[in-house]
Amino acid sequence: MSRHFDTYHPAGYRPPAGSWASSDAIRKTMLACGSRNTRPEVRLRSLLHRRGLRFRVHLPPVNSVRRTADLAFTHWRLAVLVDGCFWHGCSEHFVLPATNGAYWSAKIEGNRVRDRATDAAFRRAGWTVLRVWEHTPVEDACQKVQAALAELRSTEASASVRERRGTLRTGLGLPVTAAVSGHRATNTGG
Fold this sequence. Notes:
CATH topology of the largest domain: Endonuclease, Chain A
Oligomer: single chain
CATH architecture of the largest domain: 3-Layer(aba) Sandwich
CATH class of the largest domain: Alpha Beta
Shape: globular
Number of domains: 2
Radius of gyration: 25 Å
């Protein structure tokens, strides 16, 4: 029995007729499922932290959307979401419950649609989205996060190299900062 259930339901509570829960026990179990700080999420956070990576937890990257990233690397604008196999309909592990199949089918499909909308909203706001299934070994998930960060770093580094190599030069051969500020600079032929 969970404290959450007991807090909001008096002793002897029965689910209403037509409820998604097929029994009191199922209802209590489902209500006790947390959406934050799940075991796979905490394991991934711990391993990333041990490797020296720092991130924000449960950050809403887009203020206009009521969705949060499980992990957010704000400097690199990388949002990591750890998806549960049941709630997000993993193609490898999801099994539709035998009871209330129509309800659960619609519920899981709704979650999938919301996941796609979340990804699109984060991307429109300039974030890279990385989704990891809960069944992914934590070491593999950590490597995926590190690879995504490495790619974002290299993209940023190559952009700044292009800037230094002359894409921000005036026709006079002067760096833009010197030309704009009015300071004289000698043209060294570079």
